[in-house]
Prior knowledge:
The chain is an alpha+beta fold. The chain folds into three domains: 97 residues, Zinc/RING finger domain, C3HC4 (zinc finger) (Herpes Virus-1); 64 residues, no CATH class; 77 residues, no CATH class. The protein is built from six helices and eleven strands. The strands form five sheets. It has a three-stranded antiparallel sheet, with no helix packed on it. A hairpin with an 8-residue loop joins strand 10 and strand 11.
Amino acid sequence: PEEQAHNPSVQECTVCASEHPIEDYPSLASCTHTPTVCHSCFLQWLHQSMENTTWSSIVCPASTCTNPITHNDVQKYAPAATFTRFDELSIRSYLSADTNFLYCLAAGCTSGQIHDTGVEGPIFRCVACGFRMCTAHEPVVAFHEGEACTQYTERVERERVERLTAKEEEARKRRQDDEASVAEVGRSSVECPGCGAFIQKTTGCDHMTCRRTGCGFEFCYVCRAPYGGVEGIRRAGNSAHAKTCRYHSAKLPRYRGPILG
């Protein structure tokens, strides 16, 4: 069979597996290997890396390479907006290494700046949105207008204790309610002698049959004497009830046979 001629002017991308012209493969400054990722896949990789990793972790997209992507690479191969964002991330990474660099705490603001408390005092004002913070606290907090730092600290601690106390009181109340519920179950129900399940009688006679699956034990609701068995109420009559039970034969002056409750 005739072999297909190899076209040296195109190359298959290792990411999308499509063929592209050789010139469509970015050649990164810090890499010595042959470029294997097309321009489109390179941009996707760059955008994903900028969103999901730290600036220092943005590296060559080739699977066997970990060389960093440089400013020149991004400026050469990416749109201007992407380069601006990349440059911003690199500056932030550099500034974040400075112990005096602080990010603004205002909701929706992503700005940050260097603030030397020893020189500028404890009041930080964001150059982007004007939000103020107090750097006298660790960690830094929003500026507490009208309160000295000691007053702010005392108030925050007092509120923390109050929240903790409220949670403890809520937990105590739940425990108390649970205990009361258990006690109420104990007062208004009896334990099945057969399986231990609690049974509450609402209406009807005192001849109980446990409805728990697999049980079916029959007993007197008043004294829990069993109905079945050799010594049960069915065979022994009402004398099988506990002597204190109102259904015991001794409690029935006109007893004429078993009264089954």
